[in-house]
C-alpha cells in the first residue's frame, strides 16, 4: 500500500479521502488555501501545507505549489479528488514524471475523454451508443446551423472541452441556435481555453443515468452498478440514487456492458464514470461523457456495493488487487444522496456565510460526508457544496423515509441552505413514484 498521500483538493472530498487514508495507515497530507486554513480537512490531516491565497488559480490549481508541497512533505502519491486538477492530463503527466504515484487514470485516458467530440467518436467505434451529433467541431455558426438542420431540432449546444454540466445550451430553432452558439463558444474559451462546440440531439424528456467503473491493476475493467442523477438544476446534479428506479435487469445488463466497453476502449485504470442519457419512452440510452475521476456521488455506490472506492483507488494505484471479488459483484438495498449546498432553496443562487449552528443527523443508514463544522465560513471562492447527506435502506421506500427524517434532523444555520428543497422533494409524488426525469425541478417551481 502507498505510505503517504497528498490530497490535492479541499472541503468534503479532501476530508473523505483523508478519512480512508488514515484508516489504512497511510500518512495523509493536506494542501489548502489561506481562506481554508480553519476547515476540518486541514486539521484532520497528518500534515498540512498552505499553497496560496483564496483564488483557486493561485492555490488548488497551482501545479508548482502543489508539487513543491509534495516534495517538502515526502509524499509518495497524489490524489486529486474531483474538480480543480482532477481531469488535467498535463498535471497527471507531471505528477508521474516527478516520480510520484497518480491516484487516477492515465493521462492518455484523461486526454481521450476530455474532448467531448473525440470521446463520442471513440465510443461509437467501440460499439457504445451515442446520440446523433457532430463528429467534428462546428467550426463556425454556419457549420452549426447546417449540423442542426441535419440532426433535427431541438439540439444541445455543448463545449467540446467542457464537463460537469458546464458550457451547455439548448436551441429549439435556428434563431435560438445563433444565440446559444455564441454564448457557449465564448464561455468555453473563457473557462476551458478551447472554444470548440459540439452539436447534439436534445431530448426534452430524458433521464441521466451513469455507471461507476473501476479499471483494475490487472487490466480488467469492472462496473459497479448504475446511479440515477436526474434531479438537476442548471444541468447540475442535486440528488443521486442507486439503483436507478428506471432501470430493469435487462437494461442494467446493457448499461454495464456498454460502460465496460467504454473503459476498455481507452485502457482505463482506476475509478471513472460513464454518463449516459436514457430515453424513458423507448429504453434507448446514449453515451454522454466519461468523467475520469472520482464522482461527487460515489457514496451511493459504496453503500449499495459495500466497497470503499477511495481504498480501491489507492489499491489500483499501488498495483494491488481489489478488496472484492470482481466476478461476484451484486447490489444490496438502496441508497440516496442529497447535496447540501449553501444556496437559496427556491432559486438555487449561492448564499455563503458563517455557520452558526451545525448538527448532523445520525441513525441507521445515515451517513454525512461534510466539509464544515459550526464556526467555519463558507466563502464565495469555491463550489457551494457543504456536505453530502447519504441514506440507505433495504429498499427505496425505506431509504426515502430515512432521508426525510435525516433532512428534518439536520440543523444548519448561517449560510443559505437547500435543505427545505429536499424536504419538499421527498414529499413530491413524481419523485416518490420513481418515474421522473431531468426536468422534475422545473415542474416543482
UniProtKB/TrEMBL annotation:
InterPro entries: ATP-grasp, BC-like_N, Biotin_carboxylase_complex, Biotin_carboxylation_dom, Biotin_COase_C, CPAse_ATP-bd, PreATP-grasp_dom_sf, Rudment_hybrid_motif. Keywords: ATP-binding, Biotin, Ligase, Nucleotide-binding. Residues 120-318 form the ATP-grasp domain. The keyword Nucleotide-binding applies. Pfam families: Biotin_carb_C (PF02785), Biotin_carb_N (PF00289), CPSase_L_D2 (PF02786). GO terms for molecular function: ATP binding; biotin carboxylase activity; metal ion binding. Its EC number is 6.3.4.14. Coiled coil: none annotated. Residues 1-445 form the Biotin carboxylation domain. This is biotin carboxylase. It comes from Micromonospora deserti.
Amino acid at each position: 500500500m502507498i505510505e503517504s498521500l497528498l490530497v490535492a483538493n479541499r472541503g468534503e472530498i479532501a476530508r473523505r479521502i483523508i478519512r480512508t487514508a488514515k484508516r489504512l495507515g497511510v500518512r495523509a497530507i493536506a494542501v489548502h488555501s489561506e481562506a481554508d486554513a480553519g476547515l476540518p480537512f486541514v486539521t484532520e490531516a497528518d500534515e498540512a501545507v498552505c499553497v496560496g491565497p483564496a483564488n483557486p488559480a493561485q492555490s488548488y490549481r497551482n501545479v508548482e505549489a502543489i508539487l513543491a508541497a509534495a516534495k517538502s512533505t515526502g509524499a509518495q502519491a497524489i490524489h486529486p479528488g474531483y474538480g480543480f486538477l482532477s481531469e488535467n492530463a498535463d498535471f497527471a503527466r507531471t505528477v508521474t514524471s516527478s516520480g510520484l504515484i497518480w491516484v487516477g487514470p492515465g493521462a492518455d485516458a484523461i486526454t481521450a475523454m476530455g474532448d467531448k467530440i473525440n470521446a463520442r467518436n471513440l465510443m461509437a467505434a467501440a460499439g457504445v451508443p451515442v446520440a446523433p451529433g457532430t463528429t467534428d467541431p462546428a467550426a463556425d455558426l454556419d457549420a452549426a446551423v447546417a449540423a442542426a438542420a441535419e440532426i433535427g431540432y431541438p439540439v444541445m449546444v455543448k463545449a467540446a472541452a467542457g464537463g460537469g454540466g458546464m458550457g451547455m445550451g439548448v436551441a429549439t430553432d435556428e434563431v435560438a441556435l445563433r444565440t446559444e452558439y455564441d454564448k457557449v463558444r465564448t464561455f468555453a474559451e473563457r473557462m476551458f481555453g478551447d472554444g470548440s462546440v459540439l452539436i447534439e440531439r436534445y431530448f426534452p424528456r430524458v433521464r441521466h443515468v451513469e455507471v461507476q467503473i473501476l479499471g483494475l491493476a490487472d487490466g480488467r475493467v469492472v462496473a459497479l452498478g448504475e446511479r440515477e442523477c436526474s434531479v438537476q438544476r442548471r444541468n447540475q446534479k442535486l440528488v443521486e440514487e442507486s439503483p436507478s428506479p428506471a432501470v430493469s435487469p435487462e437494461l442494467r445488463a446493457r448499461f454495464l456492458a456498454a460502460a465496460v466497453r467504454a473503459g476498455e476502449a481507452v485502457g482505463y485504470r482506476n475509478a471513472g464514470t460513464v454518463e449516459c442519457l436514457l430515453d424513458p419512452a423507448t429504453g434507448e440510452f446514449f453515451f454522454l461523457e466519461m468523467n475520469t475521476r472520482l464522482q461527487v456521488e460515489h457514496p451511493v455506490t459504496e453503500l449499495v456495493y459495500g466497497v470503499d472506492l477511495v481504498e480501491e483507488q489507492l489499491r489500483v494505484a499501488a498495483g494491488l488487487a481489489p478488496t472484492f471479488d470482481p466476478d461476484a459483484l451484486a447490489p444490496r438495498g438502496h441508497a440516496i444522496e442529497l447535496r447540501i449546498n449553501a444556496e437559496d432553496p427556491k432559486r438555487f443562487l449561492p448564499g455563503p456565510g458563517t455557520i452558526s449552528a451545525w448538527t448532523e443527523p445520525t441513525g441507521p443508514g445515515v451517513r454525512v460526508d461534510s466539509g464544515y463544522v459550526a464556526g467555519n465560513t463558507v466563502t464565495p471562492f469555491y463550489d457551494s457544496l457543504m456536505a453530502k447527506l447519504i441514506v440507505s435502506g433495504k429498499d427505496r421506500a425505506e431509504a426515502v423515509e430515512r432521508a426525510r427524517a435525516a433532512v428534518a434532523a439536520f440543523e444548519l444555520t448561517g449560510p443559505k441552505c437547500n435543505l427545505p428543497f429536499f424536504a419538499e422533494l421527498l414529499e413530491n409524488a413524481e419523485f416518490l413514484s420513481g418515474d421522473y426525469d431531468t426536468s422534475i425541478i422545473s415542474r416543482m417551481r
